[in-house]
Structures are given as C-alpha cells and as structure tokens.
Design brief:
2-enoyl-CoA Hydratase, Chain A, domain 1; 4-stranded mixed sheet; 10 strands; globular
C-alpha cells in the first residue's frame, strides 16, 4: 500500500501495523477506513506469523478525533440505509477488537474522541502520551457516547463514566492513565521507539506485554476530583444531578453545570439511562443496543442541529428540540431503547454465513 491510503496496513516483523492516515482530518474514521481495518484484522486473526497488532495515527495532533459525522447528515438524514451500514460496520469492528485473540495495542497520543475511542479502548493495551486528549463529547452534538461507551463507561470507577458521558469532559494524559482509560504512559517522543522495539523483539504475544512494561511508566497524578464526581453525579435523573451541582456551588460544580446546560436535553436523558443499563449488559448486547440508539438519534432533529451548530456553521448555538429537560418524559426516552426489528439488528462476524 502507498502512503496516500487512508489506513496504512503492513506486516513488520511479527506485528500487524495499522496507521490511520488522514492527518488533515485528524484521522477521523470514514467507512473506507473501517473496512480496511476490519479486513486486516480478520486476515491477521488466524495468521501464525502475526503475534499482535499495533495501531497508531499519522501526524502529531490526533490518534483519531472521531467518526466522519458529516457523512451521516445533510441529504442522508432521512435515509437510514447509509447510517445503518456505517454504524453496523463500525460496531462490528469495535467488537472484533474487544474479542481479538491477540494483543491489540493502541498508541493513543493526540486527540482521542468518539470513533477513536472505539478503536482503542477495547484493545489489550492503550499507551497514552504527552499530547493525549480524551473525550466522549457526543451529547454536545445531540448524540450519545457510542462505540462501546455503553459498556466501558459504566465500568469506570464510581460515577466517572456518567460524568464523562454527560459532560464530554476532556482529559489529559495523567487523568487518562489514573482513571484506567489508558493502561500505560510514555512521553510522546518515545512512542516510535516503543513501536520499533515491538517490531524488532516480538516473537510471541506475551513478548508484547513485557516490552511495553519495560518501556512505559506513570505520567504523574491525575486531577479529576473523584469525590466530587461521585457526590454530584450519583442521582437517577439529569435534573437531580443539576440540583446536586447547584447545591455544591463550588467552582468545579459550577463548571459542570455550565457544560450540561449546553448539551442536548434529549441526549442527556438518553445517555444517563444508557449508562445505567450498560453496566449490566454484555459487550455484544451493548453494541446491539447502540445500533438502535444511533439510528434513532440520526433520524431525529438534535443530531443534525448539533452538527450544524458545532461543525458546519460553528455558531455554537444549537436550537434543541425539546429545549428543556422538563419537556422530556420517561416515555420519550424509552422510545430510543425499543429494539430494532430482527432483520435490522446487529450481526457479528461469527454469526454470518
């Protein structure tokens, strides 16, 4: 393959390497990239010459800043065929990574958001760097934290997952590591050396872990106030969370309330229920539910409006429908969780003929 490919795929030593190669687009995932990664991982899965996988992003700004959101809006808003194809293939890729039988190592330096989280968080090792900036900011565009967020966010310590999901809080390396989102840390300028060592010295899957352990360390103490997160984001409703933030009235609490007030009210309510449901579901069940949630959001008003306001016109003034949390009933929220009909449900690779 050439260096103009959107994902550069190659065998190096006993490592299968994937490099996301759209640096001008912050390596955002499009459908072609999803398909290239999927094919490579399927090919390598049973290849005895490949001991493990390393995925990184071209350029210094981003590992992967998300998915190709603009392709899911515009003229396609009323057409469910493309969004269903995109999300189904993306979620199958996320599941393939989660269940991969060989070590899957993601070098998550730079921006890691949305779709970038889905192709890193579910792997065996996630190595952050000085430039790492992690977030799941989907409620700000009238969407919800997908790509397996239903599974991994509720399993973070305490109420961290709920806080991250609702506010879209941005985390740097120290917090990404201390909260368990990254498994390892190394300075950004050492990431290429780590990859080189993996390529040179890996003979068995176990070698990869030993090499990473020998070359990584700790980035320092995180700064997320876990006690405040647990105190204020423990409520059963978004309204009660906001009340808890108002009651605290500290600088951190005021900032969180300010963040929440900019988000789609419907996205907030659906996301909170998503967090509570996902904590008791298997990974595949979470991904199946996410396909239904995604199609519901894409066909609604807030997703198109959020993309317009934040990514197209950039006026940062979305007009959400409904505009207030109080205008959304539990029945409104429940409609997002109605399972897809059988022929539309997500299928996985081992279920296909």
């Amino acid at each position: 393959m050439t260096n103009t490919d959107s994902v550069i795929v190659r065998d190096e030593g006993r490592i299968g390497r994937l490099t996301l190669n759209r640096p001008k687009a912050l390596n955002a995932l499009d459908l072609d990239m999803i398909r290239i990664m999927t094919k490579a991982l399927l090919d390598w899965r049973n290849d005895d010459n490949i001991a493990g996988i390393v995925v990184d992003g071209a350029g210094e700004k981003a590992f992967c800043a998300g998915g190709d959101i603009l392709a899911l809006t515009g003229d396609r808003t009323d057409d469910q065929a493309y969004p269903r194809m995109f999300y189904a293939e993306e979620y199958r890729l996320n599941t393939l990574i989660k269940e991969y039988p060989k070590p899957y190592v993601a070098m998550i330096d730079g921006i890691v958001m949305g779709g970038g989280v889905g192709i890193s968080m579910h792997g065996a090792r996630r190595i952050c760097g000085d430039r790492t900036l992690f977030a799941m900011p989907e409620t700000g565009i009238g969407f919800y934290p997908d790509v397996g967020g239903t599974y991994f966010l509720p399993r973070l310590e305490g109420k961290l997952g709920i806080w991250l999901a609702l506010t879209g809080a941005r985390l740097k390396a120290a917090d990404v590591f201390s909260l368990g989102i990254a498994t390892d840390y190394a300075p950004s300028d050492q990431h290429e050396q780590i990859i080189a060592r993996l390529v040179e010295d890996t003979r068995t899957p176990a070698d990869m872990g030993e090499i990473i352990d020998s070359l990584t360390g700790r980035p320092g103490a995180g700064r997320v106030p876990l006690d405040l997160v647990n105190q204020t984001f423990a409520a059963d409703t978004v309204e009660e969370i906001i009340e808890a933030l108002e009651y605290d009235d500290g600088e951190w609490a005021r900032a969180q309330k300010k963040f929440l007030m900019t988000k789609s009210p419907m996205a907030l309510k659906v996301t909170l229920r998503q967090m509570y449901e996902g904590g008791n579901m298997s990974f595949r069940a979470c991904m199946s539910m996410e396909l239904g949630l995604s199609l519901k959001f894409v066909s609604g008003d807030d997703f198109a409006e959020g993309v317009r306001a934040l990514l197209v016109d950039r006026d940062n003034a979305p007009l959400w429908k409904p505009a207030k949390l109080g205008d959304i009933s539990e029945m409104n929220v429940a409609t997002y969780f109605v399972p897809l009909v059988q022929e539309q449900r997500l299928t996985f690779f081992d279920e296909e003929n």
